[in-house]
Amino acid sequence: MIMFNHIWKMDKKDALLAMLLLIIPLLMRPMLANTPASGDPLFTFCNTEILTKNYTLNSPFENNLKLLLGSLPSNTSLTGFYNTSTGEDSDRVYGQALCRGDVNSTVCRNCIQTATKEILKQCRSEDAMIWFELCQVRYSFQNFFSSMVYTGKYPEQNRMQKNISNPVHLEQVLTYLMNNISNETAFDPSTRMFATGEIKFSRKKRIYGLVQCTRDISEKYCYNCLQSAFGELQKCCFYRQGGIIVSRNCNMRFELYRFYNASSFQLSFPASQGASWKIWMVVVVTCIPLSVLAVLIGSCAVNYHLRKKRRQRDDDKSQKAELLHELASPTGVAITQEGELVSSEGLHFMSLSIIMAATDGFSESNKLGQGGFGTVYKGVLEDGKGVAVKRLSRKSWQGLEEFKNEVILIARLQHRNLVKLLGCAIEGEEKLLVYEFMPNRSLDFFIFGL
């Protein structure tokens, strides 16, 4: 029984081990898919244009080509770059090799050796080029040294890259990175036309970039080539987590992981530029609701103000209508013992124009004095009768009520024969009482309390 349990335990362990052996390759498969094998070329270009033809097997051109390719590994490994030619006249072959700037001589030699074998295997044309991750080899029937004709190529591995969640910010940061290391590559002789750089992309991620030119071209050609490569990279890969563009005279690549061995330029994205995008978003998100709220509050305030003014006008009109109804009698008004206004002879409504003419437009020379509720002016009517006109304060909220009280009070006094109220006028903001003018100052005593 004990032995059976022991065998069962061993079987369980073996089963678990077998499952792990099956699962691990499946887990590693996606990771391996994103990185081409060291022996696989990134891209192979066999020129098939009209001016380019295939060479004949065992021809002088093929023999010269093999000699040239055989000399490239050892010579290129010395400095990382080498170009040469072999043969004469129409059978002459021009060749060039470049190793990535961060590899040692052994890696360089091995990569060039693999590339020369592969290009012979894949191409029969008299003009061809092959790119590996760490090196590139080119040959042609015509001299291409020191010249630059840009033809960018898109390696298949670009399609394997995952999309990035923030492509707008990636483009801003990546543009800054590539512009800086492109300038270093093209215009700083100490870089030998190779530069790498890294820059912070987010709180946890960094972008790593690499650019390189062949050393036979001028600084201007190198910079122009890298600018063209950058444009191609922008089209294919600025929404991805990595990308690479290869061409005859320059290469450009970026990743979200460190893929090179060289020391790199440590760059920082300018705060003003890096924060501008976030600030702009904050401003937009904040200002739009505040603007809408301000418009709503403003609309409510204007509406409230207009309604309040309308109510005031309506109340004023209502008061005027009520007062006019009480006073508007063709014969006049009088006061009862209870203080109510009733019809009476002698008190009439007058037009404002008549009163204006009588007081000479309320001139200062006709001003008798000023009391708590208005100013009194002396005047003469058309029939020659002297009058005293009391002009109540304009725009007074209680002017109409004062006006009515004044009429009632004076009517009472008139009833006692102390002062005579001849008429009144209401036009617009003007509220006027017209008394009989009494030179013996009894009117002054009534109005001013003297």
From TrEMBL:
Which cellular compartments is it found in? Membrane
Q: Where is ATP bound in this sequence?
A: 390
Topology in the lipid bilayer is annotated as: Single-pass membrane protein
What are the residue boundaries of the Protein kinase domain, all occurrences included?
362-450
- Look up the record and report any one GO term of the cellular component aspect: membrane
Q: Which domain of life is it from?
A: Eukaryota
Q: Which UniProt keywords apply?
A: ATP-binding, Disulfide bond, Glycoprotein, Kinase, Membrane, Nucleotide-binding, Receptor, Repeat, Serine/threonine-protein kinase, Signal, Transferase, Transmembrane, Transmembrane helix
Residues of the signal peptide: 1-33
Q: Which CDD domains match?
A: Gnk2-like
| The keyword Magnesium is assigned to this record | no
Record's InterPro entries? GNK2, GNK2_sf, Kinase-like_dom_sf, Prot_kinase_dom, Protein_kinase_ATP_BS, Ser-Thr/Tyr_kinase_cat_dom
Indicate the principal place this protein occupies in or around the cell. Answer: membrane
Task: Return one GO MF term.
Answer: protein serine/threonine kinase activity
- Catalysis performed (reactions): L-threonyl-[protein] + ATP = O-phospho-L-threonyl-[protein] + ADP + H(+); L-seryl-[protein] + ATP = O-phospho-L-seryl-[protein] + ADP + H(+)
In the Enzyme Commission scheme, what number(s) does this protein have?
2.7.11.1
Biological source species: Juglans regia
Protein name in the entry: non-specific serine/threonine protein kinase
Q: In what residue span(s) does the Gnk2-homologous domain sit?
A: 43-144, 152-259
Q: Write out the transmembrane intervals.
A: 279-304
